[in-house]
Fold this protein.
Amino acid sequence: MQEILGDFDVSALLPDSLLSDEFVHDMTKLLALDKQAGPIRLTGEFEPAMTLEKEGLRKKHNVVLVPGIISSGLESWSTANCSRPYFRQRLWGTSTMFKAILLDKECWVQHIMLDKRTGLDPHGIKLRAAQGLDAADYFITGYWIWGKAIENLAVLGYDSNDMTLASYDWRVSYYDLERRDQYFSRLQSRIELAQRTGAKTVLVTHSMGSQVVQYFMKWVESPRGGRGGPQWVDTHIEAVINLAGSPLGVPKTLASLLSGEQRETVQPLASYLLDHFMNRKELARIFRSWTGLAALLPKGGSAVWGDLSGAPDDPVSNHTDVSSQTADSNVHSDVSFGGQIRFDSDGLGNQTMDGALQLLFDALDADEQRLMHRDYSFGVFRTQSEMDAHKDDHRVWTNPLQHQLPNAPNMSIYCLYGHGAATERAYYYTFDNSSDAPSLKIDRTPRPLRNVDIGIVNGEGDGTVPLLSLGYMCADAWRKPLYNPHGVRVVTREFVHNPLAVFKDIRGGADAADHINILGNHDVTADVLRVVAGHGQDVNDQFTSNIREYAARINIP
């Protein structure tokens, strides 16, 4: 702790509700993330690559790593006012973020928010994504993100000449990433330059990065984007590997934007700081300014996520109808996921996903509504004529149910994800009449329901992304002609989350498959290495969940 905190008095900076001893104890546990006990495989042992190298695997294709939301570090390039002490320091990621929130919260908030009218930098503020492999290898010292993957790729012969990390400012919408940073133009140029070696590129994505690449593949083909034409993807990209991808969004994004509430699992330190030093009003204001965050709102509406009569991924047994379940019920059962937001007695009635998104839209101000409408679409196309009419509309490039996979019959898409961790799927809400908070909040009244915890309805997934979003496109929709007309090979690989006890490995060990720790899973890493080494034909479907059964209940052609 001392090396992070420096020489200032912690107790004087903490909220009255947070005891300094408790804070130091909790933060010490978070910062000691790589301490292990027992004879376990550690970071730095370069496995499973060392074993696979002995079997003959060597680098073949160029590799671009595309991180997920909040994984890339953001550094300040501002030179005015409170910005000067942070010049080229990371205000997201590293201990600088920690110190800024503690010592200079108002300045930190000014930097991390976007201008609500433009969706870009506020006047006098410039925050940009850190560059290079270290932009997302570790969030803080000891807490790896891409670090283990990079180590394993190096064993096969990769270095910074043929392996890059395409970091981006995840706060900004994909449309503005190109407009402000020329992100997709730079990615296109990078891939074209790499092909001069004679090898195609494998794009390895995590979480939101899967959406970024989907957007890129439509943008690069389009005359309104990279103007590469219909053959560009097939010519340049060998494969896309989605690790814990979120093509259909994440329900917890709805809660973050609607009421400023989040139980983030990607970086425990970031979650801890935001929860303890920001109130819901501050968090909602920050989250709503991040136009990129809305890309993770659930897509497909009631067709995918269910209605008040039920949902495709509802618990199979002992089901309780959402319309009749009350907080006073003594029935110990599961509640349906079809009601995305439920109200016990406040008069609004239970809301499906379509209704919940409308509830959010109504809560936004005029500028926030305008930018969301400019950048995103959340519906479903069911006909080829709809696909053709909107193929150059950038709003549908973020939604795989409203665009088609590229004309790339020689490319493969691999969807590798974990399941078996409780994952936020729906919510109970109530009104909040306090003047310093959003008008709605999660209703944390205890309920005798097996899948409800303090107002949050938990379902199947990887702890962050529900199984429907992780697997539906890969296991079903992308195997249908409407969404995959050119026969792109799609492979789905599921991994049961099987973590070690915390006292053995706080990150879960080599078999952990939750949302972030899957980046250190040995079996997943082995699959990635096989694909980049040119052995993708050896990586085939592996189903261990009920995703195909759930997909069969979704009525989309």
Notes: The chain has a mean pLDDT of 88. Residues 374 and 395 are 7 Å apart (CA to CA). The chain is about 30% helix and 15% strand.
